[in-house]
Amino acid sequence: MSDADQTTVVHAYGLVPGGGRFSLPERGIADATVRTIAFHHLEVVVSDLPAESFSEAAWAEHGEDTQWLTPVAAAHHDVLQHLVERGDILPLQLPGIYPSDEALIDALESSRADLERAWQTLAGRVEWSLQIFPTAELPAPEKPAPRSGREYLERRRSQQDARETERGRRETAVTEAHEALAREAAADVVRAPLDKAVTGREEPMLLNSAYLVEREQEQRFLALAERLHNQLVATSGMRIEATGPWPPYSFVGAEGAGERHEDEPGMVP
Amino acid sequence: MTESQRSESQRSPMFVSNRPQSSPESLADVLERVLDKGIVIVGDIQVRLLDIELLTIKVRLMVASVDKAREMGINWWEGDPFVSNIESEEKNEEELDLRRRLEALESRVGEQNEIVEGETTRERR
After folding, report:
1. Chain A nearest C-alpha distance from B54 (Å)
2. Residue B6 belongs to some domain of the structure
């Protein structure tokens, strides 16, 4: 394989249970075939990619270029999504490039204890994402012009009080919804809400969270999310959108995914 | 999710539960999870997601670390008419933290003054 070593690099998607119990997707990043390498009781799902386009140098060059990165990230996700719909998966983050199978195995071996711990946490569980959006704006300023500066200030003050009260009510409702779902989950993560420019919506995201849910509890979790959604719509002018099951990306921390990923997911920023 | 389903879900606030796909709707969610960095906005992009379709996304995306975003002073949920609660909570915490630090400093300065005063008294004796 020494020839191949010079022209290809190994891209790791994630780890699955050993024994080839479920089917791999046919194609991965850059249309490459997908194969596995044994790693103790697990298997690493990988593709051989042209070194020319995917070496560490290429990542350094393009790693922050969305046009280059997006199809790579999408293909990486598609492989993992295929796998999570068929069984347990420990997803690895990008970039996950190694010069050879041996180098990849060495890297995994060096963090084996952490990987085992992560595997124990993730086995039998999937990630559900939850986002909360408002369905109505906060109270808007009243129209008629104030008759005096004093009246203007008083009115402004009462409007601000009303806004603060409403804001407080929403804050409480969002927090309570999150806490109720977190109680049903093995773990949870709250991320910074995504910007409107990214979501392409007029309304801002109020909560962007993820939950690690037992596969057997999925229906129960979703039923609760739907109940909370109906409650929020009726009483607080907000709605819930859930996405899943995701590969449990948000719950593979530094320990799970190798030395590169120092930050444990958590409250950001 | 098809176009018709999407517009329907926007009309009435139904509970939506989607399968994650690397489609434009959930692209940001995918990037956020798959990359070991945060995502931040800037500049229009065109993305070839599947070989068959070229999707122009009116999304402005740039990949950068969360720290870098903070350096750039991007605080996207500030000053929004809908208001995100999370931010106000953070501000309160920041204020509390500053107050705590100020109090700690003040008490330390107070202690030092006492020591100085004590020394002066002793000297006077």
Report:
1. 11
2. no
- Using CA atoms, how far apart are residues B111 and B125, in angstroms rounded to an integer? 21
Do B70 and B91 sit in the same domain of this protein? no
Tokens of A108: 């995994």
**Position B11 in a domain:** no
Asked if A206 reaches chain B (Cβ–Cβ under 8 Å), the answer is yes
The arithmetic mean of pLDDT across residues B24-52, rounded, is 54
* Whether residue B70 is found in the same domain as residue B89: no
In angstroms and rounded to an integer, the radius of gyration of the C-alpha atoms of chain A is 23
In this complex, the residue of B15, B33, B63 whose CB is nearest that of residue A66 is: B63
Hey, CA dihedral for A101, A103, A104, A108, is it positive or negative? positive
pLDDT tens digits along A29-79: 999 999 999 999 999 999 999 999 988 888 878 877 777 888 888 899 999
Q: So what's the pLDDT on residue A177?
A: 95
Contacting residues of B for A200, CB less than 8 Å apart: 24-25, 57-59
Whether the pLDDT of residue B47 is over 90: the answer is no
- Tracing tokens 């909370």 back to the chain, one arrives at A228
Q: Nearest CB to B66: which of A167, A168, A269?
A: A269
Indicate whether B15 belongs to any domain.
no
Residue A63 touches partner B, C-beta closer than 8 Å: yes
B26 and B69 share one domain: yes
- Quick one: tokens of B49? 């997601």
Let me know whether B47 and B92 are in one domain. no
Contact B15 A229 (CB under 8 A): yes
Residue whose entry in the numeric block shows the structure tokens 């990949």: B63
Q: Which domain holds residue B37?
A: 21-76
Which CATH number is correct for A126-250, 3.40.1350, 3.40.50, 3.30.70, 1.25.40? 3.30.70
At A130-172, the pLDDT tens digits run: 999 998 766 555 566 777 888 888 887 887 788 778 778 888 8
